[in-house]
Design goal:
mainly beta, 18-stranded antiparallel beta barrel
Length: 413
């Protein structure tokens, strides 16, 4: 009964559900979750402590995904609903923390956002229209803060060809993690965040193919109209190394240039990432190398949209012109010691030879220490805790330390 009540609003936006059996599939195959997230972040900037920022907030998210109703002709339809809301428990009012909305004088005490998605499927081809949470080399949603960065538009994905995924998409808006409405697309251009000029939209096309069980390849193209265009080529190789060890490796290359009317000027950037991880029992060891070519920094969308397909990405993005960087990762799963659900990861990045604000040979480094624990069983099963410490040091701007603590719980209806 609770699940049926939650779907009343979504059913109203679906044109027709056909038969009673279709209605049952729409409801019975649905997934409805209530997610709770308590999030604390404190960033301390060494040389300018007056600009320190952070907040403590409580987030509540209703994530409802319907099943599919058959409306004839092999066409199935459905709808998704995502309702996000956050309450500020404490925080610095004077400085924006880009976690909660800020009007220039103080951060807001609470805010929320609602997004809906209509979806249609024929065989293994699916079209989604409305709010989107993409994961792709050229665009990703961002769950790293209290509420998620999402997008609006249309996303068509087909898996009808064996071992191949084809994607076509059009994005016309972004709802940033610290915002509660969809806005036009801009470019993130440090140190001046953007110049106020906006794009009419972003076109995306991609193909992913698995050549063998071990070898995969991808090509993606994106055009943020009148700002930048992006070509991506990637190859991956995964294999077992004996009974306990697994290798996961990849090579990724981006070619970025200006688009159309060049609203943010000339863009000339190429980025090469090479990475490998070896998992052996409870241990995971990773190594990554990244190099920037060209006269510009790597372009991303306004709103601090991340680019996790670069092997070295953190608070220090290691994306300045000519910058070279290495990343080292070590992770340990404590299950083998009897602490099921507990794991820890240490990541160290170091960058060199960067150009920034007219300076050359600039360096930076960053240390991330992350501890995760998820209650594995019992009445509190699924309750999660994460603690994260970040220490970033720069030649070209102030060093910083950051502390993050998150407590999460998901209730499934």
């Amino acid at each position: 009964m609770r699940r049926q009540n939650l779907w009343i609003a979504i059913l109203a936006s679906t044109a027709t559900l056909g038969t009673t059996a279709s209605y049952a599939a729409f409801i019975d195959d649905s997934q409805v979750q209530l997610k709770l997230r308590n999030f604390y972040l404190d960033r301390q900037i060494e040389e300018t402590p007056s600009k320190n920022w952070g907040s403590w907030s409580q987030g509540i998210t209703l994530d409802a995904k319907s099943g599919y109703a058959d409306i004839g002709g092999g066409i199935q339809v459905g709808a998704d609903l995502l309702v996000q809301h956050a309450f500020k428990l404490n925080g610095r009012d004077k400085n924006p923390d880009f976690i909660l909305p800020h009007d220039g004088k103080e951060s807001k005490d609470n805010f929320g956002k609602v997004g809906a998605t209509l979806k249609a499927k024929v065989s293994q081809t699916e079209l989604k229209v409305g709010e989107l949470l993409p994961v792709s080399p050229v665009l990703v949603f961002d769950p790293s803060r209290q509420l998620m960065t999402t997008y609006s538009g249309a996303w068509l994905e087909s898996k009808d060809l064996k071992d191949t995924k084809l994607t076509l998409a059009y994005i016309d808006g972004i709802n940033n993690r610290y915002d509660n409405q969809f806005r036009d697309l801009t470019k993130f251009a440090p140190p001046a965040y953007d110049n106020g000029k906006t794009s009419d939209g972003m076109y995306i096309a991609g193909v992913d193919h698995q050549f063998t069980p071990e070898v995969g390849g991808s090509y993606w193209y994106a055009d943020v109209q009148d700002i930048y265009q992006q070509h991506y080529v990637g190859a991956s190789y995964k294999t077992k190394l004996g009974e306990k060890a697994k290798l996961d490796s990849f090579v990724r290359y981006f070619d970025n240039s200006e688009s159309g009317d060049k609203l943010y000027g000339k863009i000339d950037n190429q980025a090469l990432s090479v990475g490998a991880k070896v998992n052996y029992g409870a241990h995971t060891v990773g190594l990554g190398y990244q190099q920037m070519f060209g006269d510009s920094a790597f372009p991303t969308l306004g709103g601090w949209v991340p680019q996790p397909y670069l092997v070295n990405w953190g608070v220090a993005t290691f994306t300045n012109p000519d910058e070279k960087s290495w990343g080292f990762t070590y992770g340990y799963d404590f299950s083998e010691l009897g602490a099921k659900g507990l794991n820890a990861t240490a990541v160290y990045f170091t960058g060199s030879d960067a150009k920034f604000a007219g300076k050359t040979n600039q360096g930076s480094d960053e240390l991330n220490l992350i501890v995760n624990y998820t209650v594995p069983e019992g009445k509190l099963k699924g309750l999660g805790f994460q603690a994260m410490y970040i220490d970033a040091n720069f030649d070209y701007k102030s060093d910083l330390e950051e502390y993050r603590v998150a407590t999460t719980y998901t209730y499934k209806f």
